[in-house]
Amino acid sequence: MAGVDKLVVGCGYLGQRVAQTWVAQGDRVFGLVQSESRASQLRDAGIVPLVADVTQLDTLPAFPEVQTVLYCVATGRGASASQTSKRAVYVDGLQNVLNRLGSGYERLIYISSTSVYGQTGGEWVDERSPCHPVSPGGRICLEAEEGLRRFFAESGDVTRSTYHILRLSGLYGPTRLRSRVEQVRSGRPLDGNPDAWLNLIHVDDAVRAVLACEQRGRPGEVLIVSDDRPLTRREYYQALASSVGTDTIRWAQAAAEQTEVSQHLNKRCCNRRLREELKVELEYPTFFVGLPNAVGV
Question: Rounded to whole angstroms, how far apart are CA atoms 65 and 128?
Answer without folding.
Answer: 34
